[in-house]
Amino acid sequence: MKLEAIINENYENLNENDLYILRFILKHKVECLDMSITQLARKCNVSTASILRMTQKLGLSGYSEFKFALKNDISADFISKRNDVMNCNYMDLFEKSIKDTIKHFQNTNTDEIFHHLWSAKQVYIYGTGWAQKLAGEQLMRTFFSCNRPMILIQHFTEFKMMLPNYTENDLIIIISLSGNIEHIIDCLRILKMNKVPTLSITDFKNNQLASLATYNLYYQAIYFNDLKIGNNPIIINSMGTLQVLCELIYIGYLEKYGTHIN
């Protein structure tokens, strides 16, 4: 049984503190799988006893059985996604990924994101890879046309050197695929400590970058692992949906603030 179904079955037994813990776990499934009960308690700012009681309210014997249920839940999600890929050709995958990206964007409350884009003194963009940098360039060009200049940071060294200069009045946009690049994570912790607003743009999955950023937007990357060049198998990560998401951000911003632009 999926973890969400177990929670639904025992919902009346749960208090607000239990729901707070479970919301954190559901948002960070993969990260929580490797946590001890002490580490999870520290992340949620609760006692280990609170977590143990929560697992027992779900009808489980304790934290070990809860982690087993969580592991099965993650495995089921992976198998479902893998079967989707195996049963689709690449055109179907593109269509599904675009629809998933649009659906998630529609279900995200973007008001505060657009407000920060509108009001920020400076907007900085950093992409962790080649495709991400292209997406950053796309954002910079499109927003320049509506008098919202952005500064594209080309190299990590430059991004790190600028850390003391970012302020609470700025907005930092970080575009990544995995969202789990350790040196970027260290910088995000500093930005969070200094209360600098950040927007992460990553693939659909739990990741450290999204958990630390002030705001999150997601795109659905596509993975092709059955292609060949000659006799050599290749793996391709297609991030065409990242370009779609950039367009959605731009159009959504114009819908919100277009009439205020001089």
What's the gist of this structure?
By secondary structure, the chain is α/β, with parallel strands linked by helices.
Task: Describe what you observe in this structure.
The protein is α/β, with parallel strands linked by helices and 262 residues long. The chain folds into two domains: 84 residues, Arc Repressor Mutant, subunit A; 171 residues, Rossmann fold (3-Layer(aba) Sandwich). It contains 13 helices and seven strands. Strands 2-1-3-4-5 form a five-stranded parallel sheet, with helices on both faces. A two-stranded antiparallel ribbon has the order 6-7. Strand 4, helix 12 and strand 5 form a beta-alpha-beta unit. This is MurR/RpiR family transcriptional regulator.
- Model regions low in confidence, pLDDT < 50 over at least 5 residues: none
Number of strands: 7
**Bulk shape:** globular
CATH superfamily of the largest domain: Glucose-6-phosphate isomerase like protein, domain 1
User: How many helical elements?
Assistant: 13
Distance between the termini: 55 Å
Strand count, sense and closure of the main sheet?
5 strands, parallel
Mean pLDDT equals 85
Strand order of the largest sheet: 2-1-3-4-5
Secondary-structure-derived class: alpha/beta
Percent in helix: 55-70%
How much strand? Answer: 5-15%
Notable traits:
7 strands, 262 residues, Arc Repressor Mutant, subunit A, 5-stranded parallel sheet, two-stranded antiparallel sheet, single chain, 2 domains, alpha/beta, Rossmann fold
Blueprint (SSEs and pairs):
Elements: H1 3-9, H2 16-27, H3 29-33, H4 37-44, H5 48-57, H6 63-86, H7 90-106, H8 111-119, E1 123-127, H9 130-144, E2 151-153, H10 156-161, E3 171-175, H11 182-193, E4 198-203, H12 208-212, E5 215-219, E6 222-229, E7 232-238, H13 240-257
Parallel strand pairs: 1-2, 1-3, 3-4, 4-5
Antiparallel strand pairs: 6-7
Helix pairs in contact: 4-5, 7-13, 8-13, 9-13
